[in-house]
């Protein structure tokens, strides 16, 4: 069979990883795919920059549109990242009848609805396994392997930078700022870490996960997003004493009335599998009504793991190039005319356990007042810890983990506690996730 | 589009789970697959037996061959289990041009080579995700998601019964016999537990994993297989003191000279993810050269999880029914003419860490002699533990964990230790797996 010609847009870390992997494992990949897959053209900003791969046989230029329109190119591989230019190029590739593979979560989360509609109309496939959790095949797992299930929830550590920072705070006892600086030194965090530490990168990925799990349109702008900046080492310690680890999770969860899509720091029981995922690793837990809990673990970033998913998509694309579009796996797991528009719930309707820490004057009746307020809102208590604060001798710190409760009710309790005369400033609140492994 | 008609062979626990799942999640499944999937005929031993599912609309009879030859049946679902009858029915279904889905590991491990050759010749697909690790999508992960990788090794807890027994021995402090009886009471183990406790069930699964990981023919009869019968509670305790858990693993691993395919009790560092997989759960770790380590966790058995994988295969089959066979995922991950015949190594060539326990007379020079014997074979020591035995006051028990070593060399050391005048009967040896999470 004829080789398949790939046109590569962007030859940075991931692009070089793909070229290197296709060359290193060429014979095994061809043995699996049935056809040789080769990168014949690439477009880059500066053709004279040094590359992390052998570019022999690749025609390197600067014009992305020339590649997108080249009739000899069978599949366009978009690895330039970012939003607008990538969108225009992918739409142009689709318009010229080419299949597309991309690792761009930002692009898919924001423009996926438009892109998939165009691809379905043009009879081409846009693949994006590498856009979520790097080398972990979570898109295929949810979209194909769990296709028989009513997915109840998905919860994942889907930002390696954030997880690395939290692991360092836990095990090295460093502050958030020190851990972030360490992550930047090691190349796990960008110079501008906003996307990672504010939860935006995780929200991009969660938009994709939520869509394929529930058959809803990509809904990035409806995601509740909270980052890890400002998590105190104290809370990491107290959580540990209570039997929990603080993880930054993306959670997509069904309720009767709609779906929760939320990204925030979360307390996870130290016995749960997700609690033991350390450093820059990712893990995603998916709960289907038939299969029960399943977990997928691996490297969420880096040239090799990302290239692994990109090339898997290329192999799938090659296998599908002869296929009637109706027979393909739908882009968003459900057939395009079967996407539904379920309500996406906001914070007051979230339902989960809660952790809060409040500093109060150490006097009789305080704990009674706090627990009474919880009881009044019918919120059960899972664990209570009381400690002397590092300073302020006459104060006490109270840490409480509640049983699952509607967030609206918990907020009433916290408002009440804040209003009490003996309550100090700076109440800390985090959500708790209870998982059934 | 026309509904797809499934002919079901066998309506036991898994069969009822499939019928129930197809009915319960009908609308979501149709939204994903693009066509309605319905079981229209089933063949059972006794049509009057009560069923665990609503069989309305299913024509239930006793003649499997009538279903296999029914022109109105699009896909045959083989769930009768066992070897010979299942083989004949699957081969007949292929001969009549029907796609097949099966959960039968025994069948695939022993007759897969013949079955896949016939299916490729007939242009039909035989799917078997449920044959390995129940609801965990490990076949698709290795065959499709990691297709860009040179797979270095796969190691998995792939027999839930065995893992349950080992967990009970660890946490309840019971003996092997007591834990087995408990597993039987709870329905995790068959009345005749031979396949589970002797490692045969795990070897069936490992044959399939090894084949799709390395592109070699199914090689069940070449697998080194050791069960969990006879593991002493003492060794579970000592292993724990040394920082290890004993797990029953299936391991497929490349060496320069060939591949290791082995099933045996294995010490795993308590820090490794696989160590924390408890009870009847399964987990498989796959190490690819590009992606690094990945882990897949979930329920390895039961009606719901197995039905989840069976119905995923049905959905894949429905999507592929319009597809050119050349474009499909190859049965054994590699194209049929690209299967190679690598040497399969035997025990002396296995390379891993080792644990051994030996009871000796407590006299000067014994430890020196044992460690000298290891050094002479160039085997490094990872950890040493010495204990008084429960009885025999003048004896000592020595437990050693070695660094990875060729098994041939370790056997020489053990033979030497056995031959020493102060060595008692009953030296215990187990292998250790070192994983990079």
TrEMBL record, chains A, B:
UniProt-annotated binding residues for NADP(+): 9-16
Annotated positions binding L-homoserine: 190
Keyword Amino-acid biosynthesis listed: yes
InterPro entries per the UniProt record, alphabetical: ACT-like_dom_sf (IPR045865), ACT_dom (IPR002912), Asp/hSer_DH_NAD-bd (IPR005106), HDH (IPR016204), HDH_cat (IPR001342), HDH_CS (IPR019811), NAD(P)-bd_dom_sf (IPR036291)
Pathway listed: Amino-acid biosynthesis; L-methionine biosynthesis via de novo pathway; L-homoserine from L-aspartate: step 3/3; Amino-acid biosynthesis; L-threonine biosynthesis; L-threonine from L-aspartate: step 3/5
EC number: 1.1.1.3
Residues reported to bind NADPH: 105
Catalysis: reaction(s): L-homoserine + NAD(+) = L-aspartate 4-semialdehyde + NADH + H(+)
UniProt GO BP: methionine biosynthetic process; threonine biosynthetic process
GO molecular-function terms, A-Z: homoserine dehydrogenase activity; NADP binding
Keywords recorded for this protein, A-Z: Amino-acid biosynthesis, Methionine biosynthesis, NADP, Oxidoreductase, Threonine biosynthesis
Organism domain of life: Bacteria
Top-level enzyme category: oxidoreductase
The ACT domain, residue ranges: 355-431
Active-site residues, record numbering mapped to chain: 205
SUPFAM superfamilies: ACT-like, Glyceraldehyde-3-phosphate dehydrogenase-like, C-terminal domain, NAD(P)-binding Rossmann-fold domains
Protein family according to the UniProt entry: Belongs to the homoserine dehydrogenase family.
Protein name: Homoserine dehydrogenase
Organism of this sequence: Salinisphaera orenii MK-B5
């Amino acid at each position: 069979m004829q080789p398949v010609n790939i046109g590569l847009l962007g030859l940075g870390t991931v692009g070089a990883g793909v070229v290197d992997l296709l060359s290193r494992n060429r014979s095994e990949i061809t043995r699996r795919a049935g056809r040789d897959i080769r990168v014949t053209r690439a477009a880059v900003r500066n053709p004279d920059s040094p590359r992390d791969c052998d570019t022999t046989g690749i025609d390197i230029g600067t014009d992305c549109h020339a590649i997108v329109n080249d009739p000899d190119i069978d599949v366009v591989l978009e690895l330039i990242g970012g939003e607008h230019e990538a969108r225009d190029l992918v739409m142009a590739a689709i318009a010229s009848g080419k299949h597309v593979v991309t690792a761009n979560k930002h692009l898919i989360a924001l423009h996926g609805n438009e892109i998939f509609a165009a691809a379905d109309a043009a009879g081409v496939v846009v693949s994006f396994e590498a856009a979520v959790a790097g080398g972990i095949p979570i898109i295929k797992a949810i979209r194909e392997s769990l296709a028989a299930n009513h997915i109840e929830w998905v919860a994942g550590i889907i930002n390696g930078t954030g997880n690395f920072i939290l692991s360092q705070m836990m095990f090295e006892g460093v502050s958030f700022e020190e851990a972030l600086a360490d992550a930047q030194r090691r190349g796990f965090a960008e110079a501008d870490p906003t996307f990672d530490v504010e939860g935006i990168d995780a929200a991009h990925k969660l938009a994709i996960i939520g869509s394929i799990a529930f058959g809803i349109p990509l809904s990035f702008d409806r995601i509740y997003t909270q980052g890890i900046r400002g998590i105190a080492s104290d809370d990491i310690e107290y959580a540990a004493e209570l039997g929990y680890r603080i993880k930054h999770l993306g959670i997509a969860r069904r309720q009767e009335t709609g779906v929760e899509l939320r990204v925030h720091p979360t307390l996870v029981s130290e016995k749960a599998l997700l609690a033991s995922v350390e450093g820059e690793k990712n893990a995603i837990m998916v709960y289907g009504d038939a299969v029960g809990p399943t977990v997928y673990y691996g490297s969420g970033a880096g040239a090799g793991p990302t290239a692994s998913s990109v090339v898997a998509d290329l192999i799938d694309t090659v296998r599908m190039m002869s296929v009637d579009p109706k027979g393909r796996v739908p882009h968003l797991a459900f057939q395009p005319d079967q996407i539904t528009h379920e309500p996406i719930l906001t914070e007051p309707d979230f339902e989960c356990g809660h952790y809060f820490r409040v500093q109060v004057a150490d006097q009789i009746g305080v704990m009674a007042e706090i627990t009474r307020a919880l009881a009044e809102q019918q919120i059960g208590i899972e664990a209570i810890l009381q400690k002397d604060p590092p300073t302020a001798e006459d104060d006490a710190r109270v840490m409480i983990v509640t049983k699952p409760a509607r967030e609206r009710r918990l907020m009433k309790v916290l408002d009440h506690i804040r209003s009490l005369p003996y309550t100090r400033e700076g109440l800390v609140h985090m959500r708790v996730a209870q998982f059934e492994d």
